[in-house]
Amino acid sequence: MHDLRRQALESGKTVSKKAQSRMSSRASSAANSRVQSRNVSRHASDDEDADMSDSTNWSVNSIDDMLSLDVPEDATEVWRQDLADRMEEIIDRKRSSVQGRETSLSQYNYILMSHYAYDEIHSKTSELFPALLKSVKAGSSEKEICLALRAIAISIITNPSETVYDAIFQTLKNTYTDSEFHAVKATAIHSLSAAAIYGGASDDEILDIMDELLEIIESDGNSVEAADSGEVVTAACEAWGFLATSIDDVEEKNEAAMDAFVEQLESSETSVQIAAGENIALLYEKSFTPRETEDGPASPSEAEGDDGCELDSRFVKRYEVYRQKSQLVHTLSQLANESSRRVAKKDRKTLHINFTDILNTLEHPPRGPRYSMARDKDTGREFGSRLVIRIHKTGSMKIDKWWKLHRLQALRRFLGGGFVVHYEANEVVFDSLPIMITADK
């Protein structure tokens, strides 16, 4: 895997790899199917330690804060022994205290986030997952349950499986349905999305999860006893978008989903508004696919938009995403220019950046996040998306599609600052974002 990364950085070309399993095939499917992409944002601590936090915080820093994702390098092998000790403590629950289990889970998560530990945990998963599920079902504290749920997600990303989803699905569903804690519900939702993508769920099972998440969104959390919980509704929106990137054709789900997300644009929670808006952008992006031979050449109406701007005729609109588009444009424009003092200054800035991008995609679906129409003076071409993520100060990746941003944000929620470590060493993470890495000059 390191050789593949080196080739990408040296050549500046896209690394193409044959999928090794259904998980890696699913992870890279969107790159070869519907065009999809996205913009910025999330709300978390700017502190580096918080970025690697393994506790209950599932938020992601703003894209600007994500541009440098380095984590401290551990040149020693001490972490391997530490990981082995933590696994033994998690598996052997006898005479353990709540505080002891919380500490073991916290350290286990931190190590797994900051190191690629497939070889270290592979032989232990048959004992680890039952122990983690026991902490989820019988956890004595909110923190223990959240830590165990996160450990499940990170473990599956580290050691993907074709069968683990079937073994843990019901417990995760029961947890987000029945738990008294909203943080636990949100964490269980995110963990279920990771289990579905990397744990062997079929497309039909993923679509079923998306339907249940949409019910949570439509009911403002009431369907899982979390009435008006911004935390739970945000998690449901984010997980829905992440799962949708793995499905080639979402046309049948489009109408109900759009109605739900448009309604959530009126939420009083900035996080809900942004997550809903990102999903709207993703759905518009997915409604356009590459032009095929049978589509014929672009017609004049396909070559120029309503605003007179040139459209990308390489893509064809396959269906109407939302019938009340003018009303939606108005709502997005208001959010892109939010000026109410009832909204915190930081939140206003976040809304402006995000919804400017979302509105741009609504009007020009093939365009990705942070799209710039400014032209390069040498080539005469538009700069396009200018959202770039640095990779250990040696190279960078362009996030020019909404599906890429959805996946990047999901992986950052799971892996924190360790995303780059896993991107360079973990095949399924790399296959989730099989995109061009260019060397810095």
| Cα gyration radius (Å) | 21 Å
Percent in strands: 5-15%
Class computed from helices, strands and strand pairing = mainly alpha
Tell me the span between the first and last alpha carbons: 23 Å
In what order do the strands lie side by side in the largest sheet?
5-6-7
Number of helices: 21
Main beta-sheet annotation:
3 strands, antiparallel
* Mean pLDDT, all residues: 81
Q: What order do the helices and strands follow?
A: HHHHHHHHHHHHHHHEHEHHEEEEHHHE
The number of distinct β-strands equals 7
Shape call: globular
Share of residues in helices:
55-70%
Query: Which spans have pLDDT < 50 for at least 5 consecutive residues?
Result: 1-24, 28-50, 60-71
Characterization of this structure:
- The protein is mostly helical and 441 residues long.
- It has 21 helices and 7 strands.
- The chain has helices at residues 2-11, 22-29, 48-51, 63-66, 78-91, 98-114, 118-121, 125-138, 142-158, 164-178, 182-198, 203-218, 230-244, 251-264, 270-286, 300-303, 325-336, 345-363, 402-415, 419-425, 427-432, and strands spanning 288-290, 315-317, 371-375, 382-385, 388-391, 395-398, 437-439.
- The strands form 3 sheets. A 3-stranded antiparallel beta sheet has the order 5-6-7. A two-stranded antiparallel ribbon has the order 1-2. It has a two-stranded antiparallel ribbon with strand order 3-4.
- A hairpin with a 6-residue loop joins strand 3 (371-375) and strand 4.
- Helix 5 (78-91) runs antiparallel to helix 6, helix 11 runs parallel beside helix 13 (230-244) and helix 13 (230-244) crosses helix 19.
- The longest helix is centred in the last third of the chain and has 19 residues, at 345-363.
- The chain is globular and about 65 Å long.
